[in-house]
UniProtKB/TrEMBL annotation:
CDD domains: MFS_PcaK_like
Organism lineage string: Bacteria, Pseudomonadati, Pseudomonadota, Betaproteobacteria, Burkholderiales
InterPro entries, per database record: MFS (IPR011701), MFS_dom (IPR020846), MFS_trans_sf (IPR036259), Sugar_transporter_CS (IPR005829)
Identification of the protein by name: 3-(3-hydroxy-phenyl)propionate transporter
Keywords, ordered alphabetically: Membrane, Transmembrane, Transmembrane helix
């Protein structure tokens, strides 16, 4: 009953409105995720935080992302994408504002943890809504168009960091990151339409019962895809969040100025926004396998450029290329997850993949902080990321291979 519904997306104004609203939420989410990296050096000065403590401060929000993504995805399949998204947006808006009122290291950790819970719950719903708003041939482009808001929001956070010159002005980025989501909640209530594919599955669920988590992830030939998605998300997100949180500090460690570090961060995120749309569009037009291979070759090349950079110009180019390929590559992985699971379990499947990937967003900043505390150079840290990228590439290619195998079996059955 659901296969026909899951093969066709919404059309016209409703589809465009869904993608536009999801883009706006992704932009605010990107701003908030980057805010800790932008505010980090000044927070460290105000609260007298050691480098290792800053690693924990960066990772606290990421720790909240993990249960948030798993719970948000599962609830989306039970109560609807729209309703869960609205609660998620309200949660991360309120606790982003709460970050401006922290008074010590412990209160900072609590505020960032709860902010991360809301941020994590939002992403599976954004992916599901955009995947179901577009037809199969435009699904990657729709998810990429949404996800480009993440790096552009992070670029806005970098601009706010550049404009705030005082030591206490680090709070400005959290004011913007908190008020924006709170304003968006009533707009979502009025203008966002619930996924029609999700609505269509409800009658089937009422008769047959909702699929369990084990059914969603492991049965009907999805075990291989699920494991490979988890590995690809984990490896890629370790590198992405390491750069998102530590890139400003790495640039400063090379002797560049604070303005230059924020400029490199801004270019990283602008490159990511362009890459999110460009690479996803290429995948829709030219196929998955070649796009995934080219994408990961680009990631390795970009990391090599950044590791070998010395002056401001070469560091800026390395940051731009890393953003284009790493952030753009993550949008492709999100699109692959949207393809991998049928409508009735899409939230659960995508949420689980995002949750496992969030382990990378915890490990990346935390391990990098410990290595920095031991005196390791930025170039060594960037170079050591390359083996993880290679592992993630093989896992992503395995996902693509599973799609091909499933299509071949479907053709034989027909």
């Amino acid at each position: 009953m659901t296969s026909r519904n899951s093969s066709a997306g919404e059309t016209g104004a409703s589809s465009k409105a869904t993608i536009a609203l999801c883009l706006a939420i992704a932009l605010l989410e990107g701003l908030d995720l980057q805010s800790a990296g932008v505010a980090g050096p000044r927070m460290a000065k105000e609260f007298h935080l050691a480098v290792a403590q800053m690693g924990w401060a960066f990772s606290a929000g990421a720790i909240g992302l993990l249960p948030g993504a798993a719970l948000g995805g599962r609830l989306a399949d039970r109560f609807g994408r729209k309703r869960v998204l609205m609660w998620s947006v309200a949660l991360f808006g309120l606790f982003s504002l709460a970050t401006t009122m922290v008074w010590n290291f412990e209160s900072l950790l609590v505020a960032r943890l709860l902010t991360g819970l809301g941020l994590g719950a939002a992403m599976p719903n954004l992916i599901a809504l955009c995947s179901e708003a577009a037809g199969p041939q435009q699904r990657s482009t729709a998810v990429g168009a949404m996800y480009c808001g993440m790096p552009f929001g992070a670029a806005i956070a970098a601009v706010i960091g550049m404009l705030g010159t005082g030591d206490a002005s680090w709070r400005h980025v959290f004011y913007v990151g908190g008020l924006g989501p709170i304003v968006m909640v009533p707009l979502l209530g009025v203008f966002l339409r619930e996924s029609q594919q999700f609505v269509a599955t409800q009658a089937s669920k009422a008769k047959e019962g909702a699929p369990s988590v084990a059914q969603a992830l492991w049965r009907e030939g999805r075990a291989r895809t699920t494991i490979a998605l988890w590995i690809s998300y984990l490896g890629t997100l370790i590198v992405l969040y390491f750069l998102m949180n530590w890139l400003p500090s790495m640039v400063l460690a090379r002797g560049l100025t604070r303005v230059q570090s924020n400029l490199v961060l801004m270019l990283f995120n602008i490159g990511g926004g362009i890459g999110a749309v460009a690479i996803a569009t290429i995948m829709d037009r030219f196929g998955r396998r070649g796009t995934v291979i080219g994408m990961y070759i680009g990631i390795v090349a970009a990391l090599t450029v950044l590791a070998g950079a010395g002056g401001a110009g070469s560091t800026a180019v390395g940051g731009l290329l890393c953003g284009f390929f790493i952030v753009g590559g993550q949008s492709v992985l999100y699109a692959l997850a949207g393809h991998a699971y049928p409508t009735e379990v899409r939230g659960t499947g995508v949420g689980a993949a995002v949750a496992v990937g969030r382990l990378g967003s915890i490990l990346g900043p935390l391990v990098a902080g410990q290595l920095f505390a031991l005196g390791q150079s930025p170039s060594m840290l960037v170079g050591s990321s390359i083996p993880l990228v290679v592992i993630a590439a093989f896992a992503a290619l395995s996902v693509v291979g599973a799609f091909k195998q499933r299509s071949a079996l479907g053709a034989q059955g027909a």
